[in-house]
UniProtKB/TrEMBL annotation:
InterPro entries (UniProt xref): DUF2797 (IPR021246)
Lineage, highest ranks first: Bacteria, Pseudomonadati, Bacteroidota, Flavobacteriia, Flavobacteriales
A Pfam family recorded for this sequence: DUF2797
Domain of life: Bacteria
Name of the featured protein: DUF2797 domain-containing protein
Organism field: Moheibacter sediminis
Length: 263
């Protein structure tokens, strides 16, 4: 069977284990069902997520000109503390930014490789944690908009990492960390104006990924360097497919690539 289309990030459904669907825009593939089986991936051409043209993908699925134009790729996506929609100030598209930024946001602690602090919209929980390959997570604060969450994240970055090592995450080298203890420790460093958003709740959310065995050595597949790949799928974690020979494929990192997939 052949599936084809423009890659977008995989759709996930929380469960035990998490379910993954490859999103090829007009075609969907239940990836869990392919674990233990061979699949072949072929890069056909590119299709920018915004203009749809066959141009080199620059970042986040966009060609270079769209990347510097669309609100989905603006600076505040990576740096929430720069958000200004609450002041009525536009970055690229005020209407879009009001809808995106002025909604409840979560500041969380998650462990994928080490404890990290992050920000996401409340409705992206637990999707955001799954996309990062986090094994467990807890909510540290709930704010009314993106700016407030960004200010908390910036303050806490001095004490805790804000990045994940994807290699450790994929090898499942996950330390046991007392997140509640961490959260209580970090509370003192919240900016005064945002201290009221602290969440005392002690729930730890756990994520179970469909992986038969974790690789010991990792090779990253890049379809811009290698047009074709064939391998036996052994698991899925974060936005990565893991193959028997240690090859890992970052699906999200290939948004905008148009591929054919042979099962
Ligand atoms: Zn484009």
């Amino acid at each position: 069977m052949i599936f084809e289309g423009q890659i977008r990030k995989m759709i996930t459904e929380n469960g035990n284990p998490i379910r993954y669907y490859l999103n090829l825009k007009d075609d969907y593939l239940d990836v869990n069902q392919q674990i233990g089986k061979k699949i072949k991936i072929f890069h056909h051409h590119n299709e920018c997520l915004s203009c749809g043209l066959d141009k080199e993908i620059y970042r986040m699925g966009y060609c270079k000109s769209c990347f510097f134009l669309v609100p989905e790729a603006s600076d505040t996506i990576i740096r929430p503390e720069l958000s200004q929609a609450h002041l009525g100030i536009a970055e690229r598209d005020l209407e879009w930014e009001i809808a995106f930024q002025l909604q409840p946001h979560i500041v969380y602690l998650a462990v994928a490789s080490d404890v990290k602090v992050g920000v996401t919209r409340e409705k992206q929980i637990p999707t955001r944690w799954i996309d990062q390959g986090a094994s467990y997570a807890t909510i540290l604060a709930k704010t009314s908009n993106r700016y407030e969450a960004g200010m908390i994240e910036v303050a806490l970055k001095n004490y805790v990492a804000d990045k994940t090592s994807y290699q450790k995450m994929l090898k499942n080298e996950v330390p046991e960390i007392d997140l509640i203890h961490q959260k209580e420790f970090l509370k003192q460093y919240l900016p005064e104006e945002q201290a009221k958003f602290y969440v005392a709740d002690e729930t730890i959310y756990k994520m179970e990924y469909p992986v038969l065995n974790f690789p010991e050595k990792i090779k990253s597949l890049s379809l811009s360097k290698q047009k074709e790949f064939e391998g036996k799928l052994t698991g899925i974690k974060g936005q990565y497919l893991i193959f028997e020979d240690g090859t890992v494929w970052n699906v999200r990192g290939h948004e905008g690539f148009y591929v054919k997939i042979k099962l």
